[in-house]
Amino acid sequence: MTFAIILVAIISVISLLGTILVAGNVDTQYGKSIKKNLTNLSLIYLLLFVILLVGITWYIVIVL
Asked: Does pTM top 0.90 for this prediction?
């Protein structure tokens, strides 16, 4: 189970970093809205991380 938690955390961090790297390689026309889009994506990843953390904690405490 520890392996699964570590794997989820690693995948989340890699996904966030990948999103930030891709967001840095945009056309000049997207420069105006990139901050808003990047903020929205970061919030989505943060929310997903919190939900997964709560779900995994619930599974560990209740099911195991």
From this structure: no
